[in-house]
Specification:
The chain is α/β, with parallel strands linked by helices. The chain contains 4 helices and 5 strands, in the order E-E-H-E-H-E-H-E-H. It has a single domain (3-113), classed as STAS domain (Transcription Regulator spoIIAA, 2-Layer Sandwich), CATH 3.30.750.
C-alpha cells in the first residue's frame, strides 16, 4: 500500500493528513516532507490527522516523535487527531499520548490550539 502526505498551512498551524501506511518504507519520505514544510514556512503548531492512516510501525512513531521535538523546540504544540483503533493502540503503548494529546477530529484539535481557520 502507498502512503501520501497532504498539508495545509493556516495562520502558523500546519495540518498534516497521512494516508496509507507509515512504515520503514515511507518514514524517510514523510520525515523529509514534514521537516521541509516546518522549516520553510512559519509553522508554530502542528496538527497530525491520522484518519486515513491504516498502518504504522516503530519507524512511524520515530517520525512523529522527531517532529514533536522539532515543534516543541520552537515553542509550539503538536496534537494528533482521528487515529483509528490499531494506530491509537500503538500510540498509547509507545507513550506518545502522554506528551501529545489525541483529539477525535481536526476541529477539536484546532479548537484546543485556539486557532480559527
Amino acid at each position: 500500500m502507498n502512503s501520501s502526505v497532504k498539508m495545509e498551512h493556516h495562520r502558523g498551524v500546519l495540518i498534516v493528513r497521512l494516508t496509507g501506511e507509515l512504515d520503514h518504507h515511507a518514514a524517510d519520505y514523510v520525515r523529509m516532507d514534514l521537516d521541509e514544510a516546518i522549516l520553510r514556512r512559519q509553522v508554530e503548531h502542528l496538527v497530525l490527522s491520522l484518519k486515513d492512516l491504516q498502518f504504522m510501525d516503530s519507524s512511524g512513531l520515530g517520525v512523529i516523535l522527531g517532529r514533536y521535538k522539532l515543534i516543541h523546540g520552537k515553542g509550539g504544540k503538536m496534537v494528533i487527531c482521528a487515529a483509528n483503533p490499531p494506530v491509537k493502540r500503538l500510540l498509547e503503548m509507545s507513550g506518545l499520548l502522554k506528551i501529545m494529546p489525541l483529539y477525535e477530529n481536526e476541529r477539536a484539535a484546532l479548537s484546543n490550539l485556539e486557532v480559527a481557520l
